[in-house]
Specification:
With about 450 residues, this protein is mainly β. It is built from three helices and 33 strands.
Length: about 450
């Protein structure tokens, strides 16, 4: 049995409870018991970054019922300092960390149900101060990327249309917030589906430009927004999916060099893998549909066992479990279940301990006291494929996507960000890097 659950086996499989189910492909993933760190109330979003410049990853949560974010600085030797609560707008759903003012530290942005995106500037030591408020009508999700490849980090946000009587009654919008001379300017919007609840940023067609995928809860469909190579988007590509898609993550599940989508659905408690053919055409077969626990609310992808392929973690607000979907190397997933804190609304996979493997962190709400929860990965790690010179976008191919990234980053490297296109490490992206890429053209060995 591959872990794909047929309907008649669903009840029995989910009745296993908190035990870890062994994978037929090898030993189960191993995570330590979860540790919780208090936030405020109803934490629904979480992100990680080094906020104070000490080389350790810190955490931040968005707390919907107290209208703030909680910053948790990691202590040397492990654990986190008591949280510092920073006010933002009303009903913050998610929070992201990114260098939004190009000063080489990690700032914060929240998307809020009251109609704003709030940006908090990092003073350099992990202290955050108000920086900007951008009006956005009833935002639902946000992320960041350099959408126009100008060297500045932009923000993408999904939000409702002001003319709608209810969230699912009509098409919603997607807006880009650009950094321009220290100020932030909204551009767009572009039309997407009804009631967007989650999204992902990735290059779906291999042209080297960041695209966006959005899960539209009331449309039972995804909106694929391809970058028009001017920092905007072409009209949406409509991809049908399961009932009430709540969130999604972008990763190469089947190892074929392009970016697929893993989508969780609230109504039937399942996850679908939409496989990408490399041109942003997505398909899903019956064998790519997996049962998960009650009311899945967040999903992330990472190589959890260190064997070189993408695994998945799904958290739930209806159950105190995380479902781990372990990849067998071909894109077939085997389900394991581990105990988690109740009310896990958002999950991220990140190496919090700096030991080379991916841990899990969740935002936990739905109770009088919110928490950030950490599950340390103690799985013996396999041997991942060696790094491939020239594979800048990490798809195990040296191809046009990598070539476009070299051309887009031509010239001196930005001191604030990793210069992945500088293949010879001389601080400049130039002809030597271009020749190195062309010499490595083709599949990674």
């Amino acid at each position: 049995m591959t872990g794909r659950l047929q309907p008649c086996l669903l009840a029995a499989a989910l009745a296993v409870g908190g035990s870890v189910q062994a994978s037929p492909n090898g030993p189960p993933l191993q995570f330590a018991d979860f540790t919780q760190y208090p936030t405020t109330n109803n934490s629904t979003g979480i992100d990680a970054a080094d906020f104070d410049g000490d080389g350790l990853l810190d955490l931040v949560t968005a707390n919907r019922d107290t209208n703030d974010v909680t910053v948790l600085l990691q202590r040397p030797g492990g654990g986190f300092e008591p949280g510092v609560h920073v006010p933002v707008g009303l009903f913050p759903r998610y929070v992201i960390a990114a260098d939004l003012d190009a000063d080489c530290d990690q700032d914060l942005a929240t998307v809020e149900g009251d109609g704003n995106v709030t940006i908090l500037r990092n003073t350099g030591d992990g202290t955050f101060v108000p920086h900007a408020v951008i009006p956005i009508f009833r935002g639902t999700w946000l992320d960041s990327a350099d959408f126009d490849l100008d060297g500045d980090i932009d923000i993408v946000v999904t939000h409702l249309d002001e003319d709608l009587k209810s969230p699912g009654s009509g098409s919603a919008k997607l807006t880009i917030i650009r950094s321009v001379g220290g100020s932030f300017v909204a551009s767009g919007p572009w039309t997407i589906g009804r009631w967007p609840r989650g999204g992902a940023v990735a290059d779906f067609n291999g042209d080297g430009w960041p695209d966006v995928a959005v899960a539209n809860l009331s449309s039972n469909a995804l909106s694929i927004m391809l970058n028009d190579q001017a920092g905007g988007f072409a009209p949406q590509i409509w991809v049908p999916t399961g009932a009430e898609p709540r969130y999604l993550t972008a990763t190469d599940v089947d190892g074929d060099g392009d970016t697929d989508l893993a989508v969780i659905h609230k109504l039937l408690d399942d996850m679908w893998i939409h496989r990408n053919d490399g041109t942003s055409t997505f398909t899903v077969d019956n064998e790519d549909k997996y049962a998960v626990h009650d009311n899945p609310h967040g999903i992330d992808a990472a190589d959890l066992d260190g064997d070189g392929d993408a695994d998945l973690a799904v958290c739930h607000v209806g159950d105190a479990f995380i479902d781990l979907m372990v990849n067998d190397g071909t894109g077939s997933l085997h389900t394991q279940t581990i105990p988690a804190a109740p009310g896990s609304a958002h999950v991220i996979a990140v190496d919090l301990e700096g030991d080379g493997d991916f841990d899990l962190a969740t935002a936990n709400g739905w109770a009088a006291q919110g928490h950030a929860t950490v599950l340390a990965n103690v799985t013996p790690q396999g041997i991942a494929p060696a790094a491939c010179v020239g594979d800048i976008n990490g798809n195990r191919m040296v191809d046009f996507g990598d070539l476009l990234l070299v051309l887009a980053r031509w010239g001196d490297c930005d001191q604030c960000v990793a210069c992945t296109a500088d293949l010879d490490g001389d601080g400049t992206v130039g002809f030597i890097d271009l020749l190195s890429l062309l010499a490595a053209w083709g599949p990674c060995q």
